[in-house]
Amino acid sequence: MDLVKTAGNKAVEKIKKRIAKYLSSKKMVSFDGYAIAKIKKSLSDILTASPSTFSLELPPSHIKADLSVSLFELAKEMKTDPKKLAEEMAIKINETKNNFFESAQALGPYLNINLKKQKIYPLLLKEIAKLKDKFGQSDINKNNVVVIDYSGPNIAKPFGVGHLRSTIIGQALVNIYESVGYCVVKDNHLGDWGTQFGKLIYAYKNWADKENFKKNPIEELNNLYVKFHREAEQNPNIEDEARKIFQQLEAGDEDLLKIWLKFEKISVAEFNKVYKKLGISFDTYLGESYFVGESEKIIQEALDKKIAFEDSATGAIAVELSGLPSFLLRKQDGSTLYITRDLATLKFRTKTFNPQETLYVVGEEQSLHFRQMFTLAKALGYADGNTAKHIGFGLVSVDGEKMSTRKGTLVRLEELIDQSIAKAKEIFMSKNKDLLSNEVEEISEIVGMGAVIYNDLRQSRQKNISFDWEKMLDFEGGSAVYLQYTVARINSILKKLNNPRTVLGNIVLEKESEFALAKKMMFFPMIILEARKNDSPHLVAVYLEELAQLFNHFYNEVSIIGTENEVLRLARIALIKSTATVIKNGLALLGVKVPEKI
Ligand code: ARG
After folding, report:
1. Order of strands across the sheet that contains 145-149
2. How far apart are CA 219 and CA 213, in angstroms?
3. Closest protein CA for atom 6 of ligand 1
4. What is the average pLDDT across 282-289?
5. Residues 328-387: tens digit of each pLDDT
6. Mean pLDDT of 577-595
7. 231-250 burial, b if ≥16 CB within 10 A, otherwise e?
8. Which one has a higher pLDDT value, 343 or 468?
9. Helix segments in 392-479, DSSP class H
10. HSE, side-chain direction, 13 A CA sphere, residue 569
């Protein structure tokens, strides 16, 4: 099985080195340096309460205050009534001299706070101007390692939109975790083992159209797979043949392994084209095949610990865990299963990378698989110190139907992306006549790609998604292009003003819409932490749409070019530059690029 392991071993060594280096030296933006963190710290000093016992929130629009703080938790801790606590705290804040708080009022169990805006927002805008693309990042989790298992396509099959969701959500989580300090291992657990390879090798040996295999290997492999199932209906004997081939493969038959390796190489090259389009790279492609050897040891351990047992009738190895349906670790014919290999993988990750967490970004339909696997891993001690989480997501449908290879409704990913780019192009050709043709090409590419990614990430991942081009490319809202267009508008205003440098002296703002915009930006570093905590990239998307709305509101109200007061004009310029920075940073977390102009 050395054939299978060599490349993987190298990757593993590289990751181990990277983790060690990261943990010893990584310089990061300090969360405590952010305006929002300072406000929180100051408040916690005044209240003499730990910052973890309360959170700062944006009050609902009918409340005239800058921030609101719920005191439920703190009151519970102090064993006092939250309303009374709010009253006491309001008095305390109003009596204490400080840099941030203008005034405070109690409203039921809440504290409503008004900020010293002319002190805080200049601080904020300077912060953003200084940190630029790093604004929002923080060091909160700087000693943590997380393994993110995502994409996981199956070799010898086309990369369908099903795996696209895992790839998009997984990559967004990679970006989000990295931005708050984690060292992330990007692990692509390829589906490259299993009984289907017995079938495929049987079909390949007997029926392959060598010409077509050279030209379109994946298509030919897919054809062979379909043909195998058709033939097997007439002639069930070939199922046995295939099973035997897989047993020999699993036993390490060199000739069969060579064929299998050919499939693997072709497939990975094909997947890499997709990843390149998406701008994604992985640390490892340790597929299921890498863990076949380890699987036997696991089965033995589970037997020794009496967690698994041999079925006396069939000889298969089964596991029964309380509250879960029983499952097999070894089939009657001696071969291992998906779950056996997954368990070996989890054990390996815990031991090799020593992560605090491992995330499995896989469709909701595998939730039972993960429950079984995690429960067994716990029983065997394979995930000690490593919290394993299934990050599930809903289905992808086209015209209300779930996509599937068998039904032929599986749209190829490249087709989908190409279609999106073509639609974007159509819009730009008709809408914006000032763009040169090479600009149209470039912008359509970015916008088309962004539409596919953002459509997936803008709503909570558990929901099913569909492709509605009109919504995905709507300039008015709810789309990546809406956000990209907002940045492009800011760029064009700045251009009209001859790209002014922001002079960060006395920044003074005056309108409510300006304060609202600045305040929203102040929350950005917190939103990323929230998105991390909930494994929910959509929180970033929702935030960005709200931010863009606030910008548009401000922009309808204020003319920057027409602002005569020099200080105010510069402040407004700093404000819109910051808005562009935050939108770009947020979209970057989601994996969406932003063109200079639209
Ligand atoms: N190849 C699998 C599938 O297509 C996904 C792999 C997910 N990762 C894992 N560790 N099970 O269903």
Report:
1. 183-187, 145-149, 357-361, 387-391
2. 8
3. 152
4. 94
5. 999 998 999 999 999 999 999 999 999 999 999 999 999 999 999 999 999 999 999 999
6. 98
7. bbeeeeebbebbbebbbebb
8. 343
9. 413-431, 437-457, 469-472
10. 13
What is the per-residue pLDDT for 580?
98
Residue for token pair 């716990």: 378
Nearest to 489 by CA among 420, 426, 579: 579
Tell me what the pLDDT averaged over the chain comes to.
92
At 398, the pLDDT band (50, 70, 90 cuts) reads: low
Ligand 1 pocket, 82 CB below 6 A? no
pLDDT of residue 57: 93
Is residue 240 predicted with pLDDT exceeding 60? yes
pLDDT over 80 (residue 503): no
pLDDT at 368: 98
Secondary structure E strands in 457-547: 465-466
The tokens of 562 are what?
């027409």
The pairs formed by 248-252 with CB atoms below 8 angstroms and a separation of 24 or more are 249/197, 249/198, 249/201, 250/292, 250/334, 250/335, 250/336, 252/1
Report the largest interatomic distance among the alpha carbons of the chain, rounded to a whole angstrom: 89
403 token code pair: 């996509």
* H or E element in which residue 129 lies: helix 117-131
The answer to whether the predicted template modeling score (pTM) of the entire model surpasses 0.85 is: yes
What is 160-181 written as a DSSP string? BHHHHHHHHHHHHHHHHHHHTT
Ligand 1 close to Cβ of residue 192 (< 6 A): no
User: What's the gap in Å between 465 CA and the centre of ligand 1?
Assistant: 20
- Pocket-testing residue among 157, 167, 366, ligand 1, by greatest number of atoms within 8 A of Cβ: 366
The answer, yes or no, to whether any atom of ligand 1 lies below 6 A from the CB of 360, is: yes
Band of residue 399 on the pLDDT scale cut at 50, 70, 90: low
State whether the beta carbon of 362 lies less than 6 angstroms from ligand 1.
yes
Token pair for 218: 């994946």
Q: Which atom of ligand 1 is nearest to the CA of 191?
A: 1
- 241 Cβ neighbours under 8 A, 6+ residues apart: 198, 202
Q: Is residue 111 within a helix (H) or strand (E), and if so which, with residue range?
A: strand 110-115
> Which token pair is 56?
């700062």
